[in-house]
Specification:
Layout: H1 6-10, E1 14-18, H2 27-38, E2 43-47, E3 53-54, E4 57-60, E5 72-75, H3 82-92, E6 96-99, H4 111-122, E7 125-127, E8 133-136, E9 141-144, E10 152-159, H5 162-175, E11 179-184, H6 193-202, E12 208-213, H7 219-230, E13 235-239, H8 253-257, H9 260-271, E14 274-276, H10 279-289, E15 299-304, H11 307-319, E16 323-324, H12 329-338, E17 349-350, H13 357-369, E18 375-381, H14 388-406, E19 413-418, H15 422-430, E20 435-436, H16 439-459, H17 474-486, H18 494-503, E21 511-514, H19 517-529, E22 533-540, E23 552-556, H20 559-576, E24 582-590, E25 597-606, E26 610-617, H21 622-625, E27 628-631, H22 637-645, H23 666-680, E28 684-695, E29 698-701, E30 704-708, E31 734-737, E32 743-748, H24 754-761, H25 766-773, H26 782-789, E33 796-803, E34 809-817, E35 823-830, H27 839-854, E36 858-864, H28 868-876, E37 880-883, E38 890-896
Parallel strand pairs: 1-2, 1-5, 2-4, 5-6, 6-7, 10-11, 10-12, 12-13, 13-14, 15-16, 15-17, 15-18, 18-19, 19-20, 35-36
Antiparallel strand pairs: 3-4, 8-9, 8-11, 21-24, 22-23, 22-24, 25-26, 25-28, 26-27, 28-29, 28-30, 31-32, 32-33, 33-34, 34-35, 36-38, 37-38
């Protein structure tokens, strides 16, 4: 698993510092002093052959001379020493190393490569190199050269920048915000963003995860981990490089629109990660998510002593998609009873500038009891009449009592004390109340909570591998692209494009390729006979944007006009692009739909995230208008609708004035079809439909470009190798028959299986649960079951077995790959009252078949020595069974595939 041995690195019981030094201003000295100052509770060893002791800590010359085996080895020595040190640490049994040192290089044969190979030999995990270090306040470990140590709390920070991590620590110290862990990952030689997301997602002491990202290395692994983590707790990211130019040299409009940062934005959205624009907003997110749970809705009630600031807060709330809660007549009457007659009478609840602590708490009590709001924002503007500090103290006491009474059902309460002194901030922060310097920051904080709740709901949907509403002719599409590639071409010709779209039931205007003027006239006369007007376009593999060379002529109604236009088009093209190969002209029926909207949609290839779907407003000025939205495939109708709604042109798809609405879901369905085409034919590098006309009768492609090319698989595992998100693997659904004709339906697990998993666990004895989880299991939380059911099939797979006659869940088998996708760890659980009927054997065979198809080299697992039945089945299946050398009550079982 990607979390293999990570607990040993992040929560070690013993550490050794190699390179600790008394030399002033050295990294080794800074880290040693930080470890001592933080009062690490485990064993501490020091390796330095030049000194007998440093800072009263005895030193030894070699790791093997330590009186204990350190779980974590922290290394600050020069680069050339690192590979040998890793080898020595692995040889004595250390679980991993934190490499602070920089300058190990990259690629085959580098010091970094040699260090990685040494670690893999012993199953060690590595953090770094070139990093600030780690800070784990819960165990009082500060193995970093940061200037400060954060207090313990519920936020985890994973940063690709040591400076950003250090800055977060300084900010947190001022705000009283605590951390469950801070990890600077540096060059990510082994442990990466995804591994740490997995770890902190499972950590019960972490409420939210903060990320600072410069670039993602393994997009599919990142998406898998981020989606899994975001389902159970908020994940917030700030990414540098927003202004990067991205796909500047793209040949199609869709390629140009799919800039690098726009693709990252689409990936974060699909992963359920909340993206913020800068560090200040990240701090505000930390302020909110580290203290309160997400509300059940987005209705905010605002309590203030200043009307102007309350109105500003409502304005910002509406702009960001929130809702100003309404006050019912009953609530209005209750507020009338405790507030002066001059109060606002609506939301925002302005309780007037002379409001004291008592007036605040009375109004707050009424609003908290009101079911018509989901959260409260309490604001204060300092006056000379009432003490802002006294009001803050009274509000915190009241909210503390409210939370004790309501516990997990308590509404979120946020605060904004404008111009507050440090004492007020400390009062609010000390009570766990998110507080902000302005109303804008506070409203943003509330909307972060709202967006997280919406994300969790959207992540429960898993797109199907193949939309059921259409059956594309995949073989025709592959043959068209294959023929072009065999000819050495990188672009499909217009007739091939027309046939390709037809294979996926995407309507396109009748299109003909004419190699000569006479041939163009002949095709035009066929269209004239059908009552059509004709358009001519230049036909050249080297000219993608035809209008740029004057290569389009519209509204042709006679054969003579066609002849003249064809000659003129080819002459102009040769003059403007003498290097271009001119193959003739394209002849199409002229489509006139007066009330149709011009759209663009297509497929682009991103070097990090693979295939991207692009949608927006079409026409020749698409890059200038820049009204677009990007999404990662696969898509279903829900995701396609969401993609459309993120553009301005989506409003034009609805009815307005005398223009009828575009046919329902006609545009969304084309997006779904394009995503499926990209899955079926990954050799399509770029695809551009522009314009796509859409009106009440449906959609029609007027022009399209398709670039093709052979590409190596971008991502490991099965499924579309060009997709960072894998579709639901319906091809793994199986009907099984076991002993006595018992029929079972086995399929990949889905998020909606959570209720049946809870019911299933009621039929598993406490003893069987102990054998499965290696500990007594009294309760299964939503978060725990969500981790079991909400997979995205990239690194983990689970099959549920359903009794075909009753549809009851009777067994579950799962496998999770390691961080390099070479081996997988399995687990299986059956209903206790149905054991011995051959179900376990059938499910184990299914998971072995799946692992082989995925290209895994080995399946492994841990089984308690007393679980005789499982050990016997493993032996019969060909597993090698050995007693664990460190935990004698466990057996390690391995099957080479």
């Amino acid at each position: 698993m990607s979390t293999y041995r990570l607990r040993n690195l992040l929560l070690p019981r013993s550490i050794a510092l190699v390179g600790g030094s008394p030399r002033p201003n050295s990294v080794g000295r800074a880290i040693l002093e930080n470890v001592i100052k933080a009062r690490f509770e485990g064993k501490l060893g020091l390796v330095n052959s030049r000194y007998a002791a440093i800072s009263s800590i005895p030193a030894v010359g070699n790791l093997s001379e330590l009186p204990f085996v350190p779980e974590l080895v922290v290394i600050t020595t020069p680069p050339a020493t690192i590979p040998d040190l890793i080898d020595r640490a692995g040889a004595i049994g250390s679980a991993g190393a934190l490499i602070i040192t920089s300058g190990l290089g990259h690629g085959a044969g580098s010091l970094a490569d040699r260090a990685e190979q040494a670690a893999q030999k012993y199953g060690m995990r590595l953090i770094g190199p070139n990093c600030l270090g780690i800070m784990m306040p819960t165990i009082k470990l500060n193995a970093s050269f940061s200037a400060h140590m954060p207090v313990a709390g519920s936020l985890a920070l994973i940063s690709q920048s040591g400076a950003i991590a250090a800055g977060m620590v300084d900010w947190a110290a001022q705000r009283g915000v605590g951390f469950s862990g801070i990890v600077s990952i540096g060059d990510q030689l082994d442990v990466d963003l995804a591994d740490l997301l997995d770890h902190f997602a499972l950590d019960g002491g972490t409420r939210a995860i903060l990320l600072y990202i410069e670039a993602v290395k393994d997009a599919r692994k990142f998406m898998s981990a981020a989606r899994a983590a975001a389902r159970v707790k908020p994940v917030v990211v700030v990414k540098s490089g927003r202004g990067a130019v991205g796909a500047k040299a793209a040949a199609t409009h869709t390629g140009a629109l799919a800039g690098a940062d726009a693709v990252y934005d689409a990936a974060f959205r699909r992963a359920g990660v909340l993206r913020v624009s800068d560090l200040r907003e990240l701090f505000d997110c930390a302020e909110t998510l580290g203290r309160v749970e997400s509300p059940t809705g987005k209705r905010l009630a605002i309590l203030t002593n200043g009307g102007g600031i309350g109105v500003l807060a409502v304005d910002r709330l509406v702009e960001l998609g929130g809702v100003a809660a309404t006050l019912s007549p009953a609530v209005h009457d209750k507020l009338d009873a405790v507030l002066p007659p001059t109060w606002s009478g609506s939301n925002p609840v302005d309780i007037v500038g002379d409001a004291d602590a008592a007036r605040y708490t009375q109004a707050l009590e009424t609003l908290l009891a009101d079911q018509a709001n989901d959260a409260i924002l309490v604001m204060n503007v300092q006056t000379a009449i009432a003490s802002a500090s006294d009001i803050a103290t009274a509000v915190t006491h009241f909210i503390g009592a409210y939370r004790k009474q309501h516990r997990r059902w308590a509404k979120p309460v946020l605060a904004a004390w404008v111009g507050a002194e440090q004492q007020v901030i400390e009062t609010l922060s000390g009570a766990g109340i998110p507080n902000y310097p302005t109303e804008d920051d506070a409203v943003r904080g509330f909307m972060h909570l709202v967006r997280h709740r919406e994300v969790v709901e959207s992540l429960a949907a898993v797109p199907p591998a193949m939309p059921s509403s259409f059956a594309p002719d995949v073989e025709i599409a592959r043959k068209i692209v294959g023929t072009a590639l065999a000819d050495g071409r990188t672009w499909l010709d217009p007739v091939e494009i027309s046939r390709l779209l037809e294979a996926y039931d995407i309507a396109m205007v009748p299109t003909f390729a004419a190699a000569s003027v006479d041939e163009a006239v002949g095709y035009a006369e066929q269209l004239f006979a059908q009552g059509a007007t004709v358009v001519l376009k230049i036909l050249s593999r080297d000219i993608v944007h035809k209008s740029d060379v004057g290569g389009v002529v519209l509204n042709l109604t006679t054969a003579e006009a066609v002849r003249n236009a064809a000659n003129e088009i080819m002459a102009r093209a040769k003059a403007v692009r003498p290097d271009a190969r001119i193959s003739g002209v394209i002849v199409q029926a002229m489509v006139v739909r007066a009330k149709a909207r011009e759209l663009i949609m297509g497929v682009a290839d991103d070097p990090t995230f693979g295939t991207v779907i692009v949608f927006g407003r079409g026409g020749t000025a698409v890059e200038i208008i820049n009204d677009k939205a990007l999404g990662l495939p696969p898509l279903d109708l829900h995701l396609a609708r969401n993609l459309i709604e993120r553009t301005r042109v989506s409003r034009l798809l609805r009815a307005y004035r005398d223009v009828p609405a575009v046919k329902a879901d006609a545009v969304a369905m084309v997006l779904v079809k394009l995503a499926q085409l990209a899955a079926d034919v990954p050799e399509i590098r770029e695809l551009d439909i522009n314009p796509l006309l859409a009106d009440e009768s449906g959609v029609l492609a007027v022009d399209a470009r398709v670039a093709v090319g052979r590409v190596p698989p971008k991502f490991k595992g099965s499924g579309p190798s060009n997709f960072a998100v894998r579709p639901y693997p319906s091809q793994w659904e199986r009907h099984l028959q076991v002993k006595d004709g018992w029929r079972i339906f086995a399929r990949p697990i889905r998020p909606e299986d959570e209720p049946v998993i809870h019911e299933f666990l009621k039929h598993v004895t406490a003893e069987d649960l102990r054998l499965r989880f290696f500990a007594p299991m009294k309760e299964f939380s939503h978060e725990f079951i969500a981790r079991l059911t909400q997979l995205d099939y990239a690194r983990a797979m689970a099959f549920v077995a359903l009794d075909e006659s009753t549809n009851e869940l009777v067994g579950v088998v799962r496998i999770h790959s390691d961080s390099v996708y070479e081996s997988g760890e399995y687990a299986i659980l059956l209903r206790s009252d149905l054991k011995g009927r051959g179900l376990g054997w059938a499910l184990m065979q299914l998971i072995i078949e799946y692992a082989k198809a995925e290209g895994l080299k080995m399946i492994s697992g841990d089984v308690l020595q007393e679980n005789i039945v499982m050990l016997e089945m493993c032996r019969n299946l060909g597993f090698e069974v050995k007693t664990d050398p460190t935990e004698r009550d466990l057996c390690n079982v391995k099957l080479t595939l």
